[in-house]
Amino acid sequence: MLKKLIYISLIVLLAGTVSAQSPANDYIETYKEAAISTMNQHGIPASIVLGIAIHESASGTSKIARYLNNHFGLKGKGGPKKIRSSYKGYENVESCYNDFVNYLQAHFTGLFTKYTPADYRGWALGIQRGGYAHSKTWASQVMAIIKKYRLYELDSTANNYIANTVYKPVLLSEASNPVVYLVKKGDTLLEIAERFNTTVREIKTRNSLTNSLLKIGQELYLE
Predict the structure, then answer these.
(1) Residue 161 pLDDT class (50, 70, 90 cuts)
(2) Fold of the CATH domain 179-223
(3) Which residue of 29, 84, 195, 206 has the lowest C-beta tally within 10 Å?
(4) Distances, alpha carbon 41 to alpha carbons 6, 35, 44, 160, in Å
(5) Alpha carbon distance 52, 141 (integer Å)
(6) What whole-number distance in Å separates Cα of residue 54 and Cα of residue 76?
(7) What is the CATH number of domain 7-171?
């Protein structure tokens, strides 16, 4: 009888462990083809697409993912509002994935020419430096997800594409020619705004900044 109880307990324990891991694994299986397609069309590593989505949406289980189809924590108005939220709402997950690409193309243009799909680390750190998230450990958390679930293996499917392709973003407007400024020691938003004939508010909006603190080497998109 005791052995039977121990056996049952082990089964319950193992089932609980599998269950705890299943949301991320299920998410990867569901959306990996969309991530690979995004990579091959736009040059964003599939591992980055999935890693950020898993992190920001709790593997599709968060409230904004379930009610707003928002898997990337993108803020703003738009789409069906089933809950009161400052996050964007989308008709479907595909629309959210497309908007994520648009957001990166608009705010992180330099990453598309600086990094290939093989360099998920460069993408993660570059997106963090650009102000995508407030947490200083955001990039580390995303990279930990990529490593844990070996998402970098999906990036290898773009190897043949990388060999003969120079990545450039498909800009929201072909007439757009973004100006990227690297912050130097002593720079302030006011000085940069005056130098480029813009405003502090415009710079903060364009780069999703919530305060005026700058870091040396930080990329600011000015046009």
Answers:
(1) very low
(2) Membrane-bound Lytic Murein Transglycosylase D; Chain A (3.10.350)
(3) 84
(4) 52, 10, 8, 13
(5) 9
(6) 20
(7) 1.10.530.10
